[in-house]
Design a protein that fits this description.
This protein has a domain at 41-189: Butyryl-CoA Dehydrogenase, subunit A, domain 3 (Up-down Bundle), CATH 1.20.140. The protein is 62% helix and 3% strand. The chain has helices at 3-6, 47-67, 78-108, 113-130, 134-140, 145-151, 155-158, 161-170, 177-186, 191-204, 218-223, 230-246, 248-269, 276-282, 286-299, 304-314, 339-353, 355-366, 403-421, 434-437, 439-454, 459-476, 478-494, 501-516, 534-538, 544-561, 567-576, 583-587, 597-622; strands at 13-15, 320-321, 370-371, 382-385, 394-396, 520-521. Helix 17 packs across helix 19 (403-421).
Length: 623
């Protein structure tokens, strides 16, 4: 299990397109930036690509010849053991650079066969190289506990103590070297092949929406679900359902295959619960996640059920059809933000909190680290790719000028700032577990929302903005926990045998009815909407990290508003730590404890209070 070397790109944070909405027209947004990947490589033909591949292969061979069978013995010399790990870490950075370039190039245009081939070729070569390195983590975990503890007396090795302690947690689930090599190599034709099939299929789908002049991409069609006109939302929903139904056999096959692939891996490694491997990767204990899930599900009636009933009244409906869930409110601000305006808004919000935060974020704009235009074949949604500490992160989004796009920009820049601040931890310790990876992104989004809200003078527009924020938070908390519940149902049932499309559809409808409540009428066609959620394919059980991060940030933001002593310094220390500390250590300075159910209640109360505020506005309007 060597994630730092095997998957340098796929561990980056991806934001689902289902969490963002935008207009379908093409307003004048001013110049919108495309990224410059030359800090990684100049082009696919750059001689540095071939040179670095050869250097990585040679270094992997050197490490294997120098250290295989000897790492246990090096425990008596902490400095020598540190040198071995440092070599491994430097190679992780080099391989991560190659993988990141190929992945980013591919994400920018998944429909380009040349890019797809380059991405596939690089992935295969990196996988082949990484098989020479599987022994490293296996042998490190064979070192006697007392001997390893004694070796930390060497300052050079003490730096790696958090990483080694994390590695020890994986020891019970590691297999012998030959089997690990087989798992790694077969991943290219197994999980890797099916995730690529999913991505390329989604990027190639086109949707014939009644009333639209030409077939539309998934991103544009999903955005129609936020259109002010109900007939356009309805038409988009029908088009989505038709295309997904036409392709349901393929998506069912992909889901069955990947769920079975995971079951095989879990069984061989000894994971009992379907989500145990994700909890381990997230460095979070199952009871903590269970407490989060239980708290959110218990709050459904106070949150989503109550809000959507209120929204139905606002729109003059008895119930909302599923295509009305993200409908804009009548008083929704219609302002379109140019790219320059979005940049100014986000940087001002960041700078008001901490000038250093704004100065880090500004580099993304000034140095070509953002790819924002809509483009044929481009990956849907948004993400911030950490790449490697020796370079810098890159942000991808599909910017269309809506207020929610400004929020998405703030969100992804939060990731970017976090990744930049954690770089000094190095390739092995900089990556942040998913449970904490949303900390800066959601916080940055909240800062930007509060800044926009403060400048809004109209009470009606203010109400619409608060409602929009509530919807985003419901998407981030309620929806993601429902997604997690759906995944559990699918993976648990798959252990008993292959699933039909109807079974998967039924699981989806069950969790959607529970989470959305009686005010949402789930019409025929909605049963296949599970098919397009990329997290189910790329990163099973990833989704609860969104809810974890949102509730965590709600608690942190509450402390910030209360002028918690030394908040900014403590917050920056949390971000700079990267993956070098457990979530309990990082939250302790704030007096927060994720193992305490009250922690989740505090975060959920923020959403509930905003819904209370909306109800109070309604009462005041009637009076």
């Amino acid at each position: 299990m060597t994630p730092s070397l095997r998957a340098p790109f796929v561990s980056d944070i991806v934001r689902s397109a289902s969490q963002s909405g935008a207009a379908t027209a093409a307003p004048d947004l001013g110049p919108v930036p495309e990224w410059d990947l030359s800090d990684l490589y100049k082009s696919t033909d750059d001689p540095a690509v071939a040179r670095d591949l050869a250097r990585a292969a040679a270094e992997a061979t050197r490490i294997k010849e120098t250290y295989q069978g000897k790492l246990v013995g090096l425990a008596s010399d902490g400095a020598a053991l540190a040198d071995a790990i440092a070599s491994y870490e430097q190679l992780a950075d080099l391989m991560g650079k190659l993988g990141s370039y190929a992945g980013l190039l591919y994400a920018a245009n998944q429909g380009d066969p040349a890019r797809a081939k380059f991405y596939g070729d690089i992935s295969e070569k990196l996988t082949r190289i990484s098989t020479d390195l599987i022994f490293v983590e296996l042998e490190l975990n064979q070192i006697d506990e007392a001997a390893l503890e004694a070796s930390f007396a060497a300052p050079k090795l003490a730096r790696y103590k958090p990483w080694l302690e994390d590695l020890r947690r994986e020891k019970p689930y590691q297999l012998d070297e030959k089997i690990e090599q087989l798992f790694t190599e077969k991943g290219q034709t197994g999980r890797g092949a099916f995730t690529r099939l999913f991505s390329e299929t989604m990027s190639g789908l086109r949707f014939n929406v009644e009333g639209e002049p030409q077939p539309m991409t998934l991103e544009a069609t999903l955005n129609l679900l936020s259109d002010p006109a109900e007939p356009r939302r309805h038409a988009a929903a029908d088009a989505i359902a038709k295309v997904f139904k036409d392709n349901i056999r393929l998506f069912t096959l992909i889901t069955n295959t990947l769920a079975k692939d995971k079951e095989i891996s879990d069984r061989w490694r000894g994971f009992k619960d379907v989500a145990d491997s994700r909890h381990l990767a997230n460095r979070v204990e199952a009871p903590v996640v269970d407490a989060l899930v239980a708290s959110v599900r218990e709050a459904y009636p106070r949150l989503s059920h109550r809000y959507y009933a209120m929204k139905a009244r606002w729109l003059g409906m008895e119930k909302l059809s599923h295509w009305d869930r993200n409908a804009p409110l009548p008083d929704k601000p219609e302002q379109v933000f140019t790219w320059a305006e979005a940049e100014a808004i986000v940087l001002k919000a960041y700078g008001t909190f901490a000038p250093d935060m704004a100065s880090v974020a500004k580099q993304f704009f000034d140095k070509g680290w953002i790819d924002a235009p809509l483009r044929e074949g481009k990956a849907q949604g948004a993400f911030s790719a950490a790449t490697v500490p020796s370079v810098h992160p890159y942000v991808l989004m599909n910017y269309q000028g809506e207020p929610r796009d400004v929020m998405t920009l703030a969100h992804e820049l939060g990731h970017g700032v976090h990744q930049m601040l954690a770089r000094d931890q190095g390739p092995l310790l900089a990556p942040t577990p998913l449970t904490l990876a949303e900390t800066a992104s959601v916080f940055g989004e909240m800062l930007t929302f509060r800044a926009l809200l403060a400048e809004t003078k109209s009470p009606r527009e203010k109400k619409a903005m608060i409602a929009g924020k509530v919807e985003d938070m419901l998407n981030t908390v309620v929806r993601q926990i429902a997604f997690y519940s759906f995944e559990r149902k699918v993976h648990e049932a798959r252990r008993a045998g292959e699933l039909t499309s109807d079974q998967i559809n039924a699981f989806w409808m069950d969790v959607q009815r529970e989470s959305l409540g009686p005010a949402i009428d789930l019409k025929p066609g909605y049963e296949v909407y599970w098919t397009y959620i990329p997290h189910f394919i790329n990163s099973p059980f990833y989704v609860y990290a969104y809810a974890f991060g949102d509730c965590l940030v709600n608690s942190l933001y509450g402390l910030y508003q209360e002028a918690h002593p030394g908040f900014v310094t403590k917050y920056f220390d949390l971000l700079k730590a990267g993956g070098s500390k457990h979530h309990s250590e990082l939250l302790a300075p704030f007096g927060l404890n994720a193992a305490d159910p009250a922690f989740w209640s505090k975060g959920l109360k923020v959403i509930e209070t905003m819904i209370d505020e909306l109800e109070a506005m309604d009462r005041a309007a009637v009076a």
